[in-house]
Amino acid sequence: MACFLKKLYADKKVRAIGVCNFHEHHLDELLKEAKIAPMVNQIELHPLLSQEPLRKYCADKNIVVEAWSPLGSGKVLDNSVINSIAKIYEKSVAQVILRWDLQHGIVTIPKSVHQNRIIENANIFDFELKDSEMKLIDSLNQNERTGPDPDNFNF
Ligand SMILES: NC(=O)c1ccc[n+]([C@@H]2O[C@H](COP(=O)([O-])OP(=O)(O)OC[C@H]3O[C@@H](n4cnc5c(N)ncnc54)[C@H](OP(=O)(O)O)[C@@H]3O)[C@@H](O)[C@H]2O)c1
To answer: Which of 71, 78, 109, 114 is the pocket-test mutation for ligand 1 (most atoms within 8 Å of CB)?
Structure first.
């Protein structure tokens, strides 16, 4: 963990510090040395890349998972299975995906340049997906990335 992050945390300037795009083996390496374990791991995560093993690993280590591209950069929005669930609740596909994240305890950072969509994406607290619907969305996983695999990316 970078020294300046540890200092910010020790000085109580920030309440949590984290990492981004860490696979399990990156976290293993970090946790061997780190005096302060990261509290968050921000990773690509959406219904086509549900990252279940890494989520479980993070849960075991008390690391919150934060999903970047939670809507698959828009590519998951035409999914017919999620669309059929959305119709039941009179919600949008984006709202169902973000609700699926919420019920899994995943933090999301959806991006939109449209005010109405930003409001829509925050309006997910008045419905609840059934277990069967959660599992149906879980089953859509294809391990399909929209961005680069952190193992093959030159940071
Ligand atoms: N840490 C990393 O390595 C990393 C990598 C990539 C991205 N990120 C971060 O992750 C965040 C989100 O990522 P992202 O922008 O790639 O993907 P995203 O949030 O999954 O999808 C954004 C796309 O979905 C559209 N959209 C958003 N809400 C919608 C809605 N309610 N209905 C219909 N379309 C909707 C947006 O279009 P409009 O804008 O036109 O509404 C945009 O095309 C960003 O803050 C980004 O910085 C982090």
So the answer is: 71
3-7, 92-96, 148-152: segment of lowest average pLDDT: 3-7
The angle at the Cα of 36, spanning 32 to 41, to the nearest 5 degrees, equals: 85
Domain count for the chain = 1
Which atom belonging to ligand 1 lies closest to the Cα atom of 95?
Answer: 31
* CB of residue 21 inside a 6 A radius of ligand 1: yes
In a domain, 151, yes or no: no
Pair 134, 103: CB distance under 8 Å: yes
Which protein residue's CA is at the shortest distance from atom 41 of ligand 1?
112
* pLDDT surpassing 80 at residue 2: no
Q: What is the CATH number of the domain that holds 107?
A: 3.20.20.100
Q: Is 108 in the pocket of ligand 1 (CB under 6 A)?
A: no
Structure tokens at 68: 């970047």
Alpha-carbon span 110 to 135, nearest angstrom:
22
Distance in Å, CA 10 to ligand 1 centroid: 32
The verdict on residue 9 lying in a domain is no
**pLDDT score of 34 more than 90:** no
